[in-house]
Structure formats: structure tokens, C-alpha cells
Amino acid sequence: MATFHQISSHNLECPVCLTLFSQPKLLVCSHTFCKDCLERVFQAQPNPQTITCPVCREETPISSGDVSKLQTNVSMNSLADEVKTKSPTCTVCEMDEKSPAVSYCQDCGKYMCTSCERSHSNWKLISNHEVVPMSEVLSGKVPLKRRRKCKRHPSDDEECFCIECQEYVCFI
């Protein structure tokens, strides 16, 4: 059974940076994005008075060219803050009673308990994976990397957000 953290964190990810919302701002189309992500998208816009939604392409007027003046999505902000304060459980264990996660593998996209982290580090094929302590993830020092698989190249990750195309793409 999925935990509250696993369900919520997936639904509270910014569609641009794929991390939990940080200062979520609401566009007129009701789509929500991190303030910093919207600022990057806005800077690439040809019209300095509007921003085009990266999801549905509807335009939102930007008062004085300042994205921070957009309405904050208070509900998303509260939920994201709540998820950030909850400690996730191990997503590798196959036991009914999940252990608290002590680390996160940026390459596998998995939370790991102490036992799973030890096993993970012993595998030579994945010994170069970037494993970060949960304390750094929860404090926000290290954002989680979440990768989507390319639809055309299923073995490759969509690692870039193309502002011109308004979608994620792989390097191929």
C-alpha cells in the first residue's frame, strides 16, 4: 500500500522541475508551478507582459513583469510543506511494515532504509549511484531528481525541459 508521502509527493511535483512545489504560483488556467520555474519560463517568453502555461499554453498576464505577484496556491503550498516534514519510508523493502528511509538514490529514484542502503552500496554495477542522506533531502539542500522515460526512446530519460516546445525531451 502506498504511503501518504508517496501519493502526495507525486501529486505535488512541479511539472517543470519535477520536485515538490516551492513557492507554488497559480496561473489563470489553474495550473501550478514553482515561482522559480515560472521566472525561468517567463524570461524566455517573447512577450514581457504574459507567460504561456507550459502545460496547456494558455496565457496569463504578468503584472509589472513580476512573477512573484501571481497568486500563491496556498493549498499546494500547505500540502507540499506537510509532505516535506513527513519522513518517507523505504521504497525498496518488500516487507509489509516499511522502515523509515535514511537515504535516497538519485539514480534509482528510491528511498532506502539502512539495510537496503547497505545492500545498494554493495552492488558493483550501481556503486557509482548518487545516494544522499534524508536529512539533506528533507532540509531542501538536495532536490530529488525524478526522471521520466522518453516515449520514443524508452531506455532514455527525459532530462531537459525545452522552453520553445514546452515539454520534456531526451537528448537523442
How does this structure look, described?
The protein has helices at residues 4-11, 35-43, 74-85, 114-122, 134-139, and strands at 24-26, 32-34, 50-52, 59-61, 103-105, 110-112, 131-133, 148-149, 157-158, 160-162, 167-169. It is of the alpha+beta class and 172 residues long. A hairpin with a 6-residue loop joins β3 and β4 (59-61). The strands form 5 sheets. It has a 3-stranded antiparallel β-sheet. A two-stranded antiparallel sheet has the order 1-2.
Structure summary:
This protein is α+β, with helices and mostly antiparallel strands.
Which features does this protein show?
single chain; 172 residues; two-stranded antiparallel ribbon; alpha+beta; globular; 11 strands
Give the topology:
Layout: H1 4-11, E1 24-26, E2 32-34, H2 35-43, E3 50-52, E4 59-61, H3 74-85, E5 103-105, E6 110-112, H4 114-122, E7 131-133, H5 134-139, E8 148-149, E9 157-158, E10 160-162, E11 167-169
Antiparallel strand pairs: 1-2, 3-4, 5-6, 5-7, 8-9, 10-11
Helix pairs in contact: 1-3
